[in-house]
Design a protein that fits this description.
The complex is a heterodimer of chains A (289) and B (269). Chain A is an all-alpha fold and 289 residues long. Chain A contains 12 helices and no strands. Chain A has a domain of 200 residues: Orthogonal Bundle (MetI-like fold). In chain A, α5 runs parallel beside α8 and α5 crosses α11. The radius of gyration of chain A is 27 Å and the shape is flat. Chain B is an alpha/beta fold and 269 residues long. Helix content of chain B is 35%, strand content 24%. Chain B is built from 9 helices and 10 strands. Chain B starts with 16 loop residues before the first strand and ends with a helix. In chain B, 45% of the residues are buried. Classes of the chains: A mainly alpha (289), B alpha/beta (269). Chains A and B meet through α9 and α10 of A and α3 of B. Bound molecules: adenosine-5'-triphosphate (ATP) and magnesium ion.
């Protein structure tokens, strides 16, 4: 404190630190893991009540215990290489190839649409038109064209996942601000250099958003493809279990599938954190550090 | 009072002409907006010039033409005896924002122009030069930090380095420090003067601050809007090197007052 201020200072001689506590609701003080556990427990309890008191028929909704038992059964079957393992493997292959295809096509089209005036003016309207169609309706066509093997499922999975990747890539390429563009111009950068060294890196956050949405769509595509086009994948197991009114099995299988979906999403988010370390936004689910 | 009003260029202090504009005009929106009309100016080697004028009088337009970002509608734009027909290697440009790329370290940002021009290997070879520049602007030790860890003033200093690394013949500065607080800005302006003197650089500065224009420049161009044109050319013959103390001298005050009244006249006409 300067002398000048001290003269003008009329504060009492006994000086105390100013203690200032921000009010935080008690619920927000609980660790996140505990909060999540709490929601889970409440959910299971409500679920258990509903089934225990016969509010819903057990054929429609199994009890949590039944579901858990079936999850253990399915888990054992998968772990010991039972008949479910090849089915899971088939679905994983569909998801993998579908996602690769979607990335390749989506990224290429995204660059064309985002980088060229022709793409934006002449191609984008058609892509938007196709995107608004219910893509699942194409499933019978894919089966007719590509057969009952995994190809038709890969096609549907890729078809659904491609559009968010196109949109993400195109939006990412438009993210560059005037200053950066002018800077690259004054440095005499070619169009290619501007794309590689500025627009693409700058657009990575949007591109990864597209990839994450795509990673969710690709699972939905593969399973829908199996529902509508048969085959020997995990979706077929679900369909069979459902037709036998084996609801606990359906629940268990869906939960395993969601683990696969979550793993794929988490993988994309992980890659994003590696490559877009400089971006200060939350990277979505599992994206907090 | 040494403020000489002139329609033509004053015979400028130091070296031979580097950059010449003759009768440059620019119209936007299919000739509906006349952003610039009949601008003549000459930048001599090693001189520092500033352009000042109200908002929308065409300063940024002038700088964009001089940097080869946009073509003039009329007139001649000649740098080192060659017409400017696009971005050029002998032009260094600095914007209001530092525009460092967050995925590159400070040093990598600085050698970016070399990387664009001559490739990755050349950029690598320029690292030594980049370090020397960082030291020149007082950023030694920040080579490997990312721009997000730099303050606004530090980021602008890094962008000065990026502009200087290609050793351009002229430096074009569009309100480079206007986003900074006054103390930092004064400091940065003195840094800029020092850098320009040590490298004998030719500089052209767009600014909104009369003080900034006077303390840095040999010549101040006062611009007038609608249509944008140079209304007055003021020669600043304060001794060099300039110091912040000069801002309190009567002569400095007179020059600032002269330019202010000249700007006021334009504003109400
Ligand atoms: N791309 C453009 N298209 C049409 N008109 C433009 C364009 N850029 C600038 N203008 C017009 O040209 C005139 C001069 O603009 P300019 O940006 O050069 O002004 P300025 O002196 O830099 O202003 P400021 O001090 O606010 O930065 C303005 O009237 C503006 O509306
Ligand atoms: Mg401007």
């Amino acid at each position: 404190m300067s002398n000048l201020e001290r003269i003008a200072d009329t504060a009492p001689a006994t000086e105390e630190d100013t203690v200032w506590t921000e009010h935080v609701g008690w619920l927000d003080q609980v660790p996140r893991a505990v909060q999540m556990l709490f929601v889970f427990v409440v959910f299971v309890l409500v679920w258990d009540m509903v089934t225990r008191f016969g509010l819903v028929s057990p054929i429609i909704l199994p009890t949590p215990a039944e579901t858990l038992a079936d999850m253990i059964f399915v888990g054992k079957n998968l772990a010991t290489g039972g008949y479910m393992l090849p089915a899971l493997w088939i679905t994983l292959k569909e998801v993998f190839y579908g996602f690769l295809l979607a990335i390749a096509i989506g990224f290429t089209l995204g660059v064309i649409v985002g980088e060229t005036a022709f793409g934006e003016r002449a191609i984008m309207p058609y892509l938007v038109a196709i995107d608004t169609m219910p893509k699942v309706a194409f499933a019978p066509l894919f089966v007719a064209w590509l057969g009952f093997d995994i190809h038709s499922k890969v096609a549907l999975a890729a078809f659904i996942a491609t559009f968010p990747i196109i949109v993400g890539t195109a939006a990412g390429l438009h993210a560059a601000d005037t200053n950066s563009r002018n800077l690259f111009k004054t440095m005499g950068a070619s169009r290619w250099q501007t794309l590689i060294k500025m627009k693409l890196p700058m657009g990575l956050p949007q591109i990864f958003t597209g990839l994450k949405i795509g990673s969710v769509g690709v699972m939905a595509g593969a399973i829908t493809g199996e529902f509508l086009g048969g085959g020997k994948g995990f979706g077929e197991l679900i369909r069979t279990a459902a037709s036998q009114l084996n609801t606990p099995r359906v629940f268990a299988l869906i939960l395993y599938l969601s683990i696969v979906g979550l793993a794929l999403f988490a993988f994309v988010a992980w890659v994003q954190r590696r490559f877009v370390f400089w971006h200060k936004e939350r990277a979505g689910l599992g994206g907090e550090s | 009072m040494q403020a000489a009003a002139a329609k033509t260029d004053p015979a400028n202090t130091t070296g031979e002409p580097v950059y010449q504009l003759r009768n440059v005009g620019k119209t936007y929106a299919r000739n509906a907006i006349v952003a610039l009309e009949g601008v003549n100016l000459t930048l001599n080697k090693g001189s520092f010039s500033a352009v000042i004028g109200s908002s929308g009088c065409g300063k940024s337009t002038l700088l964009k033409i001089m940097s080869g970002l946009i073509p003039p509608s009329t007139g001649r734009v000649v740098l080192q005896d060659r017409p400017v027909t696009g971005p050029r290697r002998d032009i260094g440009m600095m914007f209001q924002q530092a525009t460092l790329f967050p995925w590159r370290t400070t040093l990598e940002n600085i050698v970016l122009p070399i990387e664009i021009r001559d490739g990755k290997a050349a950029a690598k070879a320029a690292h030594e030069q980049g370090r020397a520049l960082l030291e020149l602007v007082g950023l030694k030790g920040f080579e490997n930090t990312y721009p997000s860890e730099l303050s606004g003033g530090m980021a602008q200093r890094a962008s000065i380095c990026r502009m200087l690394i290609t050793e351009p013949a002229v430096l074009l500065l569009d309100e480079p420090f206007s986003a900074l607080d006054e103390l930092t800005r004064d400091f940065m302006n003195m840094e800029l003067q020092r850098i320009c003197t040590t490298r004998n650089a030719t500089a052209f500065l767009v600014t909104h601050s009369i003080q900034e224009a006077v303390i840095l420049s040999d010549v101040v161009y006062v611009m007038k809007p609608r249509p944008g044109r140079v209304a007055e050319v003021v020669t600043i013959d304060l001794p060099r090197p300039r110091t912040l103390d000069m801002m309190t001298t009567p002569k400095f005050g007179e020059l600032v007052e002269h330019i202010r009244s000249s700007l006021d006249k334009e504003a109400f006409k």
